[in-house]
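Thread: quick sanity check before group meeting

JM: Hey all, I'm pulling together slides for Thursday and realized we never actually wrote out the predicted structure for the chain we discussed last week. Dropping the sequence here so it's in one place. If anyone has concerns about the input, flag it before I start.
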Amino acid sequence: NIEGRSLPNLENPVELIQNWHDEPAPACFGFVSSSWLPRVRYAGTYDDQWRKQRSPLLPQDFELRFNNAAMPDLCAIPFLEGGERVGLLNLSKDIIPEFNLPNLKVKVFFKIGYEIHAQLAELQTLIFDPDENRFCMVWGSACGFGKQLSQMRYVGIKAEGALAEIGINNESIQ
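JM (edit): ok, ran it. Output follows.
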């Protein structure tokens, strides 16, 4: 009898519960805490050797997958680029039409000492809020300069693409 028993609200469609003894991996759309599996296994080794030789930098065995806060099946590898078709099914009481993500290119400029380094940022995170009919796109970029934080002079950002469609202009993000 299942009455009064806790059952999952979400199931991975390729790992559906078939009987009482099944123990599928958790499935969810929420964020996975950095201290939980599977994320914590990618954090790297913070031991005495790290403290003496690398601190405050990340350990040599740190994996970028640690930064993925979504369940592994929801991580896009490689990163999305913008312009992809999106469909959200059965995530809201309302029908949400399919749409294309805005095709934005975000360029980041790092001035380290007297040198300027420019690179395209990566679309690293999408957060959907179907009940509010909105979503958030987050780009990220990194530039290594070792332990010389004092050499960082500025970081600039410039977005190009379908800005007019979503009401952003470069003055508001520079």
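AS: nice. The CA atoms of residues 44 and 62 lie 4 Å apart. The helical segments are 48-53, 163-166, 170-173.
JM: adding both to the slides.
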